[in-house]
Specification:
Number of domains: 1
Order of helices and strands: EEEHEEEEEEE
CATH architecture: Beta Complex
Shape: globular
Number of helices: 1
Distance between the termini: 25 Å
CATH class: Mainly Beta
Low-confidence stretches: none
Structural class: mainly beta
Largest sheet: 7 strands, mixed
Mean pLDDT: 93
Radius of gyration: 14 Å
Strand order of the largest sheet: 6-7-8-9-4-3-10
Length: 133
């Protein structure tokens, strides 16, 4: 299975040679600030992700010690693209940057107690107080 994706301007392009996890929605404050709303993420094995263009790729460390991670974005257009915790074998990828068809679907939402006060949770999607199992 091969999937490709990119930022808005194309300064970051990548291919995933392997399976993608279905999508989780994260409602934590940090993710909402990162994405401008809920952070939606699929994931792949780090070793399955190959960058075909990375001139715009930049990383920032998360300031919140409870969510020790780094976030990847395009330094040219600002697209929020990746989330990666140290030592994990998977990297989270924003599904909106993937070329269709993706073959994935939304299966859960995490950190629901931190959801913004300006929206209601989708009751059709299973909820978890913290990270999904």
């Amino acid at each position: 299975m091969s999937t490709s994706g990119q930022c808005i301007c194309g300064a970051v392009r990548f291919e995933v040679q392997g399976a993608l996890r279905d999508v989780l929605l994260c409602h934590c404050t940090e993710c909402r600030r990162w994405a401008g709303h809920v952070w939606a993420a699929t994931a792949a094995l780090v070793e399955d992700v190959e960058f075909t263009e990375d001139r715009g790729l930049r990383w920032i460390d998360s300031p919140d010690s409870a969510h020790d991670a780094r976030r990847g974005f395009c330094g040219e257009c600002g697209s929020s693209l990746f989330w990666q915790a140290p030592g994990r074998e998977r990297i989270s990828i924003a599904p909106g940057c993937l070329d269709e068809p993706t073959g994935i679907r939304t299966i859960g939402q995490i950190w629901v107690a931190s959801a913004g006060d300006y929206y209601d949770l989708d009751e059709r999607v299973p909820s978890h107080e913290r990270e999904a199992d």
